[in-house]
Write a structure and sequence with these properties.
3% strand; two-stranded antiparallel sheet; 3-stranded antiparallel β-sheet; mainly alpha; 9 helices
């Protein structure tokens, strides 16, 4: 007995031929664009236009039928009502691997890169605002204690006459404090293990503060006690300049942290200029030197403030609170001494 021949595939059907063949009343295949297809399990559901419009809900009726083949990584068939063809999704992540982190963001005048230097980094360490706020509070608290001690010692050296006379007649204490000041400064600036390890960093900073306080008090003692009012006025001017420069550095869009090379050249030039002015004994050159020095330390104050606040090309690491407080402290004390030399009636 001959086996019945299988009906031809619909792919083999010619235009306008009845499909499936031998069943009258069935829509010719292929149907016209947009015409409903009343056929069996395939293609779309009853009454749906064929081929489906882009974005139309289309799961095939037969579970698992691939039409057209899904894009790589896309789940198929899509859930009922989901737009077809489905959007391509990334392949599932393999165990043990992680996707690459997004590139770091840079604030202000920053530029992308991986610049990292000792004590501060490029665009790192301040992603958490709570960490940044705690760091800033810690630095300014330490700075407040330093300035309170320093200006307290200055007032004692200026207004207490026995102390004033003693420090003026024992200049060897000044030079000893100057030498210890330099040693502590280079130790804190160049040795991360010293300035990051508690409580050694606090002890070193306290010794550094006392040395610079003694130096500032000794210099101020030569302006008093009769010139004590000038010292107080210079303190007020220094406080006003410090506040104004700090606020400007915080809100300005200009990135002072990218000007480190300029500040270095300016400092070196001013040092050579001051060395030459020693031998000229000209009051005009002394005055010009003092104004340039005041400008330099004002720029250093803005530079160090932006390093502390963050959001620029370079910013201090959260562990560098001793380094940040020391830099701001030196800027403010030296700015006070320069203002005192300009307006204090120096002898």
């Amino acid at each position: 007995m001959a086996e019945p021949s299988a009906p031809p595939s619909y792919l083999e059907a010619t235009t306008d031929q009845q499909y499936p063949p031998g069943q009258p009343g069935v829509t010719p295949y292929p149907p016209a664009q947009g015409a409903p297809y009343q056929g069996g399990a395939y293609p779309p559901a009853t009454g749906q236009a064929y081929p489906p419009a882009g974005g139309a809900a289309y799961p095939p009726q037969t579970e698992g039928a691939a039409y057209p083949p899904p894009t790589e990584g896309a789940a198929y068939p899509p859930p009922t009502g989901q737009a077809y063809p489905p959007k391509s999704t990334p392949a599932p992540q393999q165990a043990g691997y992680q996707s690459a982190p997004p590139p770091a963001s840079y604030g202000g005048g920053g530029s992308p890169g991986s610049d990292v230097e000792e004590g501060f980094s490029a665009g790192r360490g301040f992603n958490n605002k709570a960490i940044r706020a705690a760091f800033i509070k810690k630095v300014y608290f330490i700075l407040f204690i330093q300035l309170l001690v320093t200006f307290g010692i200055i007032c004692v050296f200026v207004f207490v006459e026995p102390v004033n006379g003693y420090v003026r007649t024992n200049s060897w204490l000044y030079w000893c404090s100057y030498g210890l000041f330099l040693v502590m400064y280079f130790m804190l600036a160049c040795c991360p293990s010293v300035r990051r390890k508690y409580p050694g960093n606090v002890i070193a900073l306290a010794a550094f503060t006392l040395c610079l306080s003694y130096m500032a008090g000794t210099i101020s003692s030569y302006y008093g006690p009769n010139a004590g009012q000038s010292v107080l006025v210079c303190m007020g001017i220094c406080a006003g300049v410090t506040l104004g420069v700090s606020l400007f550095a915080i809100q300005t869009r200009f990135d002072f942290t990218s000007c480190g090379g300029f500040l270095f050249v300016f400092s070196l030039s001013l040092f050579l200029f001051g060395f030459i002015a020693i031998f000229t004994r000209s009051n005009v050159l002394y005055t010009v030197y003092a104004w340039l020095a005041a400008l330099l330390f004002t720029m250093f104050l803005a530079y160090d403030t932006q390093l502390l606040i963050g959001g620029r090309r370079y910013e201090l690491d959260p562990e560098e609170y001793i380094f940040g407080a020391m830099n701001l402290y030196v800027d403010i004390v030296y700015l006070f001494l320069i203002i005192l030399s300009l307006f204090g009636g120096s002898k």
